[in-house]
Amino acid sequence: VTRMVQEGLLPPLAMQMLSLSRTEAMHRPQPVFTLALAQVLAHRCPHLRYLDVSEWDGFEAASLATLLAAHTIEDLQIDCTPLCAADFAAIASCASLVKCSVCNSDATDEFVVALAENAPRLTYLSLYAGEVSDVAMHALCDGACHAHLREVDLAYCGRVCYQAGVRLALCCPDLLSMGHEHADLCDKNYT
């Protein structure tokens, strides 16, 4: 698909879903998502809604921001891909997000605070093995997305305490599922 897009074989309106996860590029040395690829996708695929760019070795500077700024991405999966602060900022500024998965990417409290405020339609968030704490949970409770949030995956987020998880469950009226395997569920003194 990538080659077809680069060679202009797909008309601009053809794709709304694109998965570049676990592609042949994974077997090449240094499979980094390049700015050139992001620019081609931004130009040739203006109606992308679903994007999976999981398991890359990273993003060239400004490539993720270029790609997200050109689209109204509603479902974004970037699992098992190292992300820098600029990548997290680009994701967090994507107001159209409904589903966001950044598993095994060292998601931070700052990212969740910005995402919670900027993505009011967010219903699903996977932070599996992220570096988030209770601060992120409070942001989800107080952010623009709390009224629509239905599922949050906090598995292996060891810095989230039980009380913050309970507060999230109480603050989000549509919350149906909160994965918390190996999250810190001990009885901390929490205020």
How would you describe what is shown here?
By secondary structure, the chain is an alpha/beta fold. The chain is built from seven helices and seven strands; from the N terminus they run H-E-H-E-H-E-H-E-H-E-H-E-H-E. The protein has helices spanning 2-6, 35-44, 63-69, 85-92, 109-118, 134-142, 162-171, and strands spanning 17-19, 50-52, 75-77, 99-101, 124-126, 151-153, 177-179. Strands 1-2-3-4-5-6-7 form a seven-stranded parallel β-sheet, with no helix packed on it. Helix 6 (134-142) packs parallel to helix 7. The chain is elongated and about 55 Å long.
List keywords for this structure.
alpha/beta; 191 residues; seven-stranded parallel β-sheet; elongated; disordered C terminus
List the topology elements.
Blueprint: H1 2-6, E1 17-19, H2 35-44, E2 50-52, H3 63-69, E3 75-77, H4 85-92, E4 99-101, H5 109-118, E5 124-126, H6 134-142, E6 151-153, H7 162-171, E7 177-179
Parallel strand pairs: 1-2, 2-3, 3-4, 4-5, 5-6, 6-7
Low-confidence stretches: 185-191
Largest sheet: 7 strands, parallel
Q: What's the helical proportion of residues?
A: 25-40%
Rg over alpha carbons: 17 Å
Strand order of the largest sheet: 1-2-3-4-5-6-7
Q: What is the terminal separation in angstroms?
A: 51 Å
Q: How many DSSP-defined strands?
A: 7
Indicate the mean pLDDT: 85
The sequence of SSEs as H and E is: HEHEHEHEHEHEHE
Structural class: alpha/beta
Sum up the overall morphology in one term.
Answer: elongated
Number of helices: 7
User: Beta fraction of the residues?
Assistant: 5-15%
